[in-house]
Specification:
Length: 396
Amino acid sequence: MRSEFTKRIFNDRYGHSRPDEPGTAFVLFPRLPPEIRVKIFQSFLERHRIIQVRLSLSSPNGGSGETGDGTAPYTTYNGLGNVVSGDTYRICASKYLAPSELFFVNHEARDVACRFYRVKVPCYLYPTQGSIFPFPKPDTTFLYNPEFDILHIQYFSALQLLVDFVHDVRAHDCKGVGVRHLALHIDWDNYTEEVIRGPGKTAFAETLESLASMWFELTVYAGARVNQVRGEPSPAPDFHYNRSVPLYSGSKPFNRLATDPRDIDPDLRHICRGRIDSGYHKSYWESLVKSFGVQRATPVDIRLMVGGSMSKQNFELVDRRSLWKLLSEPWKWSGYRRQPPTNTVPDRGVDTVAGWWLFPPEAIPEAGHEASGRGIDGSVIDVSAHRPELCIVDLP
């Protein structure tokens, strides 16, 4: 039986009304003038989505300068008559990226949705969080709107793959805009000192010059479960039960609140950073700008995404059912050498959120500069000086 706190889902307060809620049907809608119906459909679509994408080589043994079909890179043309990089890599999108409901209403609604999601990118689908080379479903596309959607690149083994992808997204855009909002998960092997080939270099540089926002993912493993305040080699680790850190859920529409309205102050003083050096993200962006000779008229809007992930348990949060399953499970302490001092989990009345926080770069100190002097391994930092924005996804 679920305890009371598992039933408090903060996402229910935001987003579109659920179909099963009483009193949400407007039966006179078909009698409205067509231009009014179109405006309503358009307003329904004008919401931000985050689209999870993974980029891998065409084959595990291939190279970024090779194509899977034997053709030279950047010699293939798409249906718009624009050159694309070719079969050099695989675009893998989450299978949970569902098309808008408007595609299934009527012809009028579908036409509005098709015009709104004007970019159609060929891709494969990956079934689980842990798969890089998936059992793909071929001949699939994900639909993308450059002005509202954020492309979250969760994995890319070489910078050339990211360059090719950004080039191809713009090639598939009939307006030639391409990527406007980008989110990256950066590993230490995502070097910027590569020799980049082909027309993709120019398209990538132009995209960096016009990019509206750049987010960097900082994953809090174990999410709202528990944070180990002092890691090894400390002989006496402490524990902090962090209720308020959002549990990351992507590939969905979301609402962005200017500040998190919940009672999160006590937890902001105990955020587990893991092994990620936040200063590396700033230097990574600066190296991209330098390497591609980017001259921006205005600074890009940089944010750090902070969300809890259950990926170590191969768990993916996609709907209410999976969220309730997660919250109903017994507390797990795997990965900690010393068990928490009690099995009682305090409940401060903080509602659970599926989504993520957004911090300014200066909110999370670089490794080695924490006031506490703790190292980067298992470090917990105090970010209470910066109250984060809160992004809340729609949970079906």
